[in-house]
């Protein structure tokens, strides 16, 4: 199934999305036609591709971006907007897996990623991120992590909160407590993607829309082929993440697309009674619930993954269930917007940075931590192409394995495993 078209209309931002509704959309850009040349050709105009384009153009490198639909059409224009610190794997686990030195390098990069995102997003960035815990055992674990983080990485990294202290941020009877991360934050993801696109163009990058790449001929000068045109480049970057499909087999066997869903309610009559402060929240469920207030005081709530590739018929009903579980006081609240998107995960839940063929580069699989990390990955890709390899070498050296069974079987096996963990969520074990 081609995920570029499975759930969406060609060349159109998702219609049910509150982000689409609350953004001044730019006029469509033209598709690429005929033959053109660039030093670097990027496939995909999400945060990865746009940030790479921006940083390459700023370095004086001639760059073309080919986007199948519109800039920010993919996960980058649909996500929860949470700008998290760290990685999908926590620092204690990273220290165990990779050693203290590499874990420290990764932490420092994650701080850089958030700083870069904050700078690029400008006034759109709102500070404050909260993790909340469903069970006492979740709470014990996250407070143990917070104590470790404060000792090793600094006092300001994670502030433990008990149930009472949590009430200053979230009014839900479900949570036992949590951890506050003042350095994290949130933003409007589509506006951020469009801002990156405008900044990249201002720096000299050229973006073509409605230009789906269906083949890349590898060679000393790779040829990137679309329906209507082709780009001959010196280097090609794959930045298609969950939508990339089978364009490169090596990437496809290590990076798995999954869908995730978000709703926005009607404006809340008393927003402070739900979220007294303007922070973004994500909880300890395996199928994570995440939420925050919008600028017009709706509750924006995400949750409910699915491991088939078609979006469910009724996304609002699917997400209403966890929303009302977290906030029983909102039972029956009208849901005005509901949409889905496709992200990508890896076996290790760390991103996959690779050079799958000569002159071909790839970064993807941010495993739900892509707002800051994909922005950062774009800069790391641009640096690497310009010959500054330090951060690339660390990231490309991270251990990575294929999904068992390769591209054909990874989905059924993953579905089985994920369904088991989702069941554990429901049983509260
Ligand atoms: C519902 C949802 C909620 C999320 N919430 C969060 C969150 O709160 N915080 C967080 O950090 N992360 C979150 N994520 C993940 C985050 O959005 C992604 O990791 C990040 O946006 C990835 O950026 P990207 O540029 O690599 O990919 P994308 O933004 O998906 O961009 C890839 C682009 O490539 C294009 N493309 C693909 N193949 C081709 C081709 N062959 N030819 C031309 N173009 C092509 C696609 O059309 C797409 O526009 C969420 C994701 C989803 C779906």
Q: Could you name the key traits of this structure?
A:
binds flavin-adenine dinucleotide; alpha/beta; 17 strands; 429 residues
Cα radius of gyration in angstroms: 21 Å
Low-confidence stretches: none
Instruction: List the ligand species.
Output: flavin-adenine dinucleotide
Report the span from N to C terminus.
34 Å
Strand content: 15-25%
> Quick check: average pLDDT?
94
**How would you characterize the largest beta sheet?**
9 strands, mixed
Give the strand tally: 17
Order of helices and strands: HEHEEHHEHEHEHEEEEHEEEEHEEEHHH
Continuous helix count? 12
Percent helix among the residues? 25-40%
Please describe what this structure looks like.
The chain is of the alpha/beta class and 429 residues long. The protein is built from 12 helices and 17 strands. The strands form 2 sheets. Strands 3, 4, 5, 6, 11, 12, 13, 14 and 15 form a 9-stranded mixed beta sheet that branches. Strands 1, 2, 7, 8, 9, 10, 16 and 17 form an 8-stranded mixed beta sheet that branches. A hairpin with a 5-residue loop joins strand 13 (290-293) and strand 14 (299-302). The radius of gyration is 21 Å and the shape is globular. The two termini are 34 Å apart. Residues 4, 43-49, 66-69, 73-76, 78-82, 84, 212-213, 239-244, 247, 260, 262, 290, 302, 341-343, 364, 366, 368-371, 374 line the site of flavin-adenine dinucleotide.
């Amino acid at each position: 199934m081609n995920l570029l078209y499975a759930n969406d209309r060609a060349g159109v931002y998702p219609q049910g999305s509150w982000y689409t509704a609350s953004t001044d959309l730019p006029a469509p850009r033209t598709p690429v036609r005929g033959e053109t040349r660039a030093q670097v050709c990027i496939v995909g105009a999400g945060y990865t591709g746009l940030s790479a384009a921006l940083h390459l153009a700023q370095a004086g490198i001639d760059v073309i971006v080919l986007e199948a639909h519109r800039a920010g059409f993919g996960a980058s224009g649909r996500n929860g907007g949470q700008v998290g610190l760290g990685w999908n794997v926590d620092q204690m686990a990273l220290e165990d897996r990779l050693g203290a030195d590499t874990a420290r390098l990764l932490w420092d990069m994650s701080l850089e990623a958030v700083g870069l995102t904050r700078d690029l997003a400008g006034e759109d960035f709102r500070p404050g991120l909260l993790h909340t815990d469903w069970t006492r055992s979740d709470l014990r674990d996250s407070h143990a992590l917070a104590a470790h983080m404060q000792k090793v990485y600094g006092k300001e990294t994670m502030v433990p909160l008990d149930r009472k202290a949590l009430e200053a941020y979230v009014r839900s009877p479900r949570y036992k407590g949590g951890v506050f991360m003042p350095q994290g934050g949130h933003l409007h993801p589509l506006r951020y993607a469009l801002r990156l696109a405008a900044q990249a163009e201002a720096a000299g990058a050229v973006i073509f829309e409605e230009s789906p790449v269906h083949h890349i001929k590898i060679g000393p000068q790779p040829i990137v082929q679309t329906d209507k045109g082709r780009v001959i480049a010196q280097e090609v970057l794959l930045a298609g993440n969950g939508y990339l499909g089978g364009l490169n087999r090596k990437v496809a066997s290590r990076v798995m697309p999954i869908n995730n869903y978000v709703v926005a309610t009607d404006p809340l009559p008393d927003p402070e009674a739900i979220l007294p402060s303007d922070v973004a929240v994500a909880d300890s469920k395996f199928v994570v619930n995440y939420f925050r207030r919008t600028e017009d005081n709706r509750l924006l709530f995400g949750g409910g993954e699915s491991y088939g590739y078609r979006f469910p018929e009724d996304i609002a009903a699917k997400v209403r269930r966890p929303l009302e579980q977290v906030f029983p006081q909102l039972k029956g609240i009208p849901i005005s917007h509901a949409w889905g998107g496709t992200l990508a995960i890896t076996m290790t839940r760390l991103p996959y940075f690779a050079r799958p063929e000569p002159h071909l580069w790839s970064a993807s699989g941010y495993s739900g931590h892509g707002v800051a990390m994909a922005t950062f990955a774009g800069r790391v890709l641009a640096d690497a192409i310009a010959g500054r390899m330090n951060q690339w070498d660390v990231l490309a050296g991270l251990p990575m394995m294929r999904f068992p069974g390769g591209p054909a079987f990874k989905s059924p096996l993953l579905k089985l495993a994920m369904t088991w963990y989702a069941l554990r969520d429901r049983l509260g074990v």
